[in-house]
Amino acid sequence: MIIVDTSVWIDYFNGRKTPETNKLDRLLGVEPLAIGDLILTEVLQGFRSDADYQTAKELLTSLTIFEMLGINLAFKSADNYRSLRKYGITIRKTADVIIATFCIENQNSLLFSDKDFLPFVQHLGLFTVSTKI
C-alpha cells in the first residue's frame, strides 16, 4: 500500500507539476493508495473555497484512510524522534514523525516531497516511492 503525504496532495490540488504529482497521477486508479487521518486533516484544512473543499473531500475519502496514532505508535513515534536526535537530526513537525512511523511500522511506502522524511528513509527504513518513470 502506498500512502500519499500532505506535501504531495497540496501540490496536486494546487495544480503544480512535480515528479511526485506526476507519479500520483500515474498511480490514481491503478495502484492501491491510502492516506492517514492526520494527512486528511492537514490537506482539507487548507482549502478556502467550499467547492474545492468538497471536491477534495470526495476524492480523498475514496481512498483507504488509516487511523495513524494510538498508544503504541505514540511511543514508537517518540522513540523514532529521539533516535534521529541522536544522529543530530531534529524533525520540525510532529505530524511528520507520526506519518513516517506509521508507514515504517506497517511497511507502507510513502510518496512525499517534504524533505523532512529523508532521515526516516536514511536511518529508520522508511520505504519511499520512486518518481522515476
From TrEMBL:
- Any idea which UniProt keywords this protein has? Hydrolase, Magnesium, Metal-binding, Nuclease, Toxin-antitoxin system
Q: Where is the PIN domain?
A: 2-117
**Which SUPFAM superfamilies does its entry note?**
PIN domain-like (SSF88723)
An example Pfam family from this entry, by short name, is PIN
InterPro entries tied to this protein: PIN-like_dom_sf, PIN_dom, PINc/VapC_TA_RNase
Official protein name in the record: Ribonuclease VapC
Q: Which organism is it from?
A: Nostoc cf. commune SO-36
Its encoding gene is what? vapC_1
